[in-house]
Amino acid sequence: MHRGSSKGARGPSAAPGHLPLSASPTNTVRIRVELVRAGRSEWLEREVPAGTTIRALLHSVGRSAEGSVVFREEDPLPLDLPLLADDRLKVYSSFSGG
After folding, report:
1. CA–CA distance, 5 with 16 (Å, rounded to integer)
2. Element (H, E) at 55
3. CA 36 to CA 20: how far, in whole Å?
């Protein structure tokens, strides 16, 4: 059964000049990444919007998230962890080099 349009059920619209929360300026965080593979390491630095996940960061540096293990110092981190502050991460490739 059709319930009809919900257009008339909306509350008052926002005042002109006020942006919705989703459109507010984003804060950025600086992430220093050490990419380790085959005994070599390469350092990269990226500035990303706060809340970017480690998975998205890895994609931005050309790495497959599913083929990587990420550490902060000695602690392994989940790929869906949001990055909320400047950080330093170490990324190891978990693919075999065959």
Report:
1. 25
2. helix 54-60
3. 41
β-pairing, 68-72 vs 82-83, is unpaired
Q: How far is residue 29's CA from residue 56's CA, in Å, rounded to a whole number? A: 14
Encode pLDDT of 18-50 as tens digits: 545 555 556 999 999 999 988 889 999 999 999
Q: What is the DSSP letter of 24?
A: S
Q: Residue 7 carries which DSSP code? A: G
The model's pTM is 0.69
* Secondary element (H or E) of residue 93: strand 87-93
- Residue 38 CA: distances (Å) to CA of 47, 59, 96: 26, 20, 10
CA gap 83, 3 in Å, rounded: 42
